[in-house]
Amino acid sequence: MTTTSSLPADPAAPATAAAPAAHRRRTSFEAAARGRGALLGIAGFWLASRAAMLWMLVNDFFSSNLVRVEVTATYHNWYDVLSTWTLPQHDIMWQYPPAAAAVFLSPDLLPFLTYFQAFVALTVLCDGVVLLGLVRAARRSDGSMAGALLWLVALPMMMATPFARYDIQVTLLAVFALLALRSRPRAGGVVAGIGAMVKVWPLLTLLGTPRGRSTRDALVAAVLSCAALLAVFAALFSDTLGFLGNQGDRGVQVESLGGSVLMAARFLDLWPGWIDFQYGAFEYIGPYVPDIARASLALTLAGFLLLLLWRVRANHWTSATPFDAALCAIMVFTVTSRVISPQYMIWLLGLAAVCLTSRNTTQRPVAWLLLAANALTTLIFPVWYADILATSALGTALLCVRNGLLLYATVWSVVRLWKATVLPRRAADAGTATV
User: Fold this and answer.
1) Which of 1, 161, 307, 376 has its CA 20 to 30 A from that of 72?
2) How many Cβ atoms sit within 10 Å of the Cβ of residue 384?
3) CA 199 – CA 122 distance, rounded (Å)
């Protein structure tokens, strides 16, 4: 078996030679997308679409008051507690690592605005920085503007939700960790470690780093940055790991994969349970719910073991493999989770956009499936969320189709990643001999 310790600068693309016409079309599209006029168009669309999202947020568009309350009530209440150098561990909705406190305190950077205005302004700024990072990544030798375009278009599809959550900030850390890994593994590891101390999942961006020095440098940097942040916040706050208990007590959220099973059973009068609001989300209560929760955890563990097996078996890396592995990992952990909140789509879309910045990605069709799932997610919340809670025919169909699509996309992502990287030894050896 042969392995690589660093990514090839410009991997060969034999499929290009087999399809010169298609290659010329892609090349001309990329050239046009990187031109001055196209960049001005991207900037104009970003300004217009984000202005529309802000208008939706403040004008009760499709009950956006339910979206706003996350910042005006929950985050603001946490800010009041955090300002006293205390973590809100008494609040069962506090389920985040200690560095998340920095995000909720960040509106202090704009003291001339209200808390809500400052938080939203910083979130919009982070959105713009993500887009700039994706545009810059497209300028690499194997780069593509498709990632920037996906992020540009996909976020407004969620209407007001992205600007009233802190998931764009977390996605920013994950995106820049991945983009840095290619040439600066230590820097990528540091950013991934910071992301892990804000919302855990960005640490999975390190899964696809090539074997050898790149992986060692990234992992050591991530561990050191996690340890340093944990030490800082332990000195500033007490009970910095108390969030683990609140997270562990969560049940089966209505919008999760297991929740859609219970919803279908409830719609067909096969299950007598009900819905209640707890731990910051609507969850199912009743018989078999603990079994569904345990099954979700078992699926998550199985997914983790499958990813570890892929890591051991993989013997072929391209410049896009770290991106593809990160998206695949987050999809596995999201779909098998007991909770799939609407804002989780921001994570998936951000990582899909990073994949599309490389022409070597295996995840292009998966990214477009995620775009479709994103549209269905917006219909679920906030457009027809009342139907979801009422277990109507429309709500049940929407949720089952969306979750079925996410499950299919996840399986397809794993299959495509596996086929592209886990090569027969003879094929890997032959490929190495030709380099």
Assistant:
1) 376
2) 18
3) 18
